[in-house]
Amino acid sequence: MLSLEGPMTDEAFLDYVRYHSRTERHLFHRDDVERLLKLAEETNVDVSFGGIPGFVALEYSDAAPLVDKALARLKKAS
């Protein structure tokens, strides 16, 4: 369950991305996409912020590899 009291931990955020990317809407705010890319240490990903200003549709097939990479990186760092 997500808490609205303060920022999400990285792990909770990645769970959120994995879940929300499977929904029909799968829209993410620019800040969330940038956080995901930073956690996955991805710099060569072109993300178009079209449609609704400041949001991007991120489907599970695109999100899952980034989430997996980020989780592996976090696990390695701990």
Q: Overview of this structure, please?
A:
This protein has 78 residues and is mainly alpha-helical. The protein has one domain. It has 3 helices and 2 strands; from the N terminus they run H-E-H-E-H. The chain has a two-stranded antiparallel ribbon with strand order 1-2. Helix 1 (10-20) packs antiparallel against helix 3 and helix 2 crosses helix 3.
So how many helices? 3
- Content-based structural category: mainly alpha
Total domains: 1
In the predicted model, the low-confidence regions spanning at least 5 consecutive residues are none
Distance between the termini: 23 Å
Strand order of the largest sheet: 1-2
Helical coverage, percent range: 40-55%
Shape: globular
Largest sheet: 2 strands, antiparallel
Instruction: Please provide the ordered H/E string of secondary-structure elements.
Output: HEHEH
Descriptors for this entry?
mainly alpha, 3 helices, 2 strands, 78 residues, two-stranded antiparallel sheet
Please specify the SSE layout and strand pairing.
Elements: H1 10-20, E1 27-29, H2 30-39, E2 55-57, H3 60-77
Antiparallel strand pairs: 1-2
